[in-house]
Design goal:
Elements lengths: L8 E6 L11 E8 L2 H13 L7 E5 L5 E2 L5 E7 L4 E3 L2 H11 L9 E6 L4 H10 L24 E2 L2 E2 L4 E8 L5 E5 L11 H4 L4 E10 L10 H9 L10 H15 L7 E5 L5 E2 L1 H10 L5 E3 L5 E3 L1 H7 L6 E2 L2 E3 L6 E4 L5 H19 L8 E2 L1
Parallel strand pairs: 2-5, 3-5, 4-20
Antiparallel strand pairs: 1-2, 6-7, 7-12, 8-9, 10-11, 10-12, 13-19, 14-16, 15-16, 17-18, 18-19
Helix pairs in contact: 5-6
The structure holds uridine-diphosphate-2(N-acetylglucosaminyl) butyric acid.
């Protein structure tokens, strides 16, 4: 097996245009994986190398949750596997039989997407086909295959709430494995795949959409947007109208990576224990805080960063966005080192002022 057996191999590729932050890094070999067969070819090539899987630097989707530090990379696999379909009776028979125990006789609504499909286009396609359930996740950058990796979430819904199962190629063994929802070990912006970068190449993802459909509109910002559009309990919004409201909110609040490089929320919202939250509330009574099912409290990283004075501030060619403090942006020609410096500066300030540590959401490569 040779790398040149994969038709779309590029050498010495700059990844600047392949990550939404617009950070530069050189890849010795960039392979665009457009089918399971090509994924298997790449795996076979890696297996033959004396250094094995450590030749692989990165599995790339839409590049929207990534900070390239700038080190030279060896092999990068860019996943571009297409495909959109509703699973037919035969494909879903196993699930349907399973469902009889739960008294539901409805045909499950299972939709499958190829890992390389653009996430937002996939969401709008499901809505146009009359298969609602993903509308709250409209306009999130990235691909279908990347959605489970960091368990994307917004406006009261996470990918994990809708993922039925997925298929991934184990790059260490060449085995194609199906993971059900529990096997993905989803957490807040986390999964098994995020914790083992470079091992699993996700090829397809199946979504189990709710039947009957129920709108998910409890997230404060979304509820306000919908109320402003004239919707209420007597006039509930349609799935398309929820999607449109989410799109409007995101376009107002979040910078478009096409205009200003960024990787979405840069820090996870920190989760602290009840005692620490109570102490912080004595000095900061207006601090937003949300009770978690396990008794701990989620704080708002955006609020903490804004309070620390970082909102709208720049450090060289990078900075904290003027409209949303949780988004770090590239004002032009930034490098991974610039992003690293800003990250550290913000983390140190938040730790000093609030005693809270902030974890970055994107992966540093
Ligand atoms: N806030 C501020 N100042 C800011 C930004 C936010 O004070 O500059 C406070 C406000 O109190 C606001 C609260 O933070 O009410 C929450 O803000 P927002 O609703 O924008 O949500 P978020 O917690 O900052 C999370 C996700 C986003 C997702 C939104 C909407 C994380 C890390 N981020 O942001 O996800 O779109 O909720 O559901 O959980 C992403 O992960 O890339 C992402 C954009």
């Amino acid at each position: 097996m040779k790398l040149t057996d994969i038709p779309s191999m590029e050498t010495n590729a700059n990844l600047r245009t392949l990550n939404t932050f617009g950070l530069p890094a050189q890849a010795k070999h960039l392979l665009r994986i457009q089918s399971l067969e090509e994924a298997r070819q790449a795996q076979a090539y890696l297996a033959q190398q004396p250094e094995g899987l450590s030749e692989l630097s990165l599995i790339l989707g839409g590049g929207s949750n990534l900070v390239l530090k700038g080190d030279p990379l060896r092999i990068v696999l860019k996943v571009e596997i297409p495909g959109r379909r509703r699973l037919e009776t035969n494909d879903t028979l196993a699930h349907a039989l399973h469902d009889t125990a739960g008294a539901s006789t409805t045909q499950p609504l299972l939709i499958e997407g190829g890992a390389g499909e653009t996430w937002h286009d996939f969401v709008r396609w499901t809505l146009d086909e009359g298969w609602p359930g993903l509308e709250n996740l409209s306009l999130i950058p990235g691909t279908v295959g990347a959605a489970p990796v960091q368990n994307i979430g917004a406006y009261g819904l996470e990918a994990a709430d809708r993922i039925d199962s997925l298929e991934a190629l184990d790059l260490t063994t060449g085995e194609l494995k199906r993971f059900d929802n529990a096997a993905c070990q989803f957490g807040y912006r986390d999964s098994l795949f995020k914790r083992h970068p470079g091992r699993w190449l996700i090829t397809t993802v199946r979504f189990r959409l709710p039947q009957p459909w129920q709108p998910v509109t409890h997230y404060t910002d979304l509820a306000q947007e919908l109320a402003g559009n004239g919707f209420d309990e007597s006039r509930p919004p349609s799935p398309h109208q929820i999607s449109d409201a989410v799109i409007a909110l995101r376009q107002r609040k979040l910078p478009d990576p096409a205009d200003l490089g960024n990787a979405g929320s840069f820090f996870k919202n920190p989760i602290v224990d009840a005692k620490q939250c109570a102490t912080l509330l004595t000095t900061h009574p207006t601090m937003p805080h949300h009770q978690q099912p396990d008794g701990r409290i989620k704080l708002s990283a955006g609020w903490l960063i804004e309070q620390s004075g970082w909102k709208g501030r720049r450090l060289g060619p990078v900075g904290c966005h003027t409209q949303h403090a949780l988004i770090l942006v590239n004002y032009g020609n930034a490098t991974g080192q610039d992003v690293r410096q800003l990250t550290t500066a913000i983390q140190q300030d938040i730790s000093r002022q609030f005693g809270v540590s902030l974890d970055p959401e994107p992966v540093f490569i």
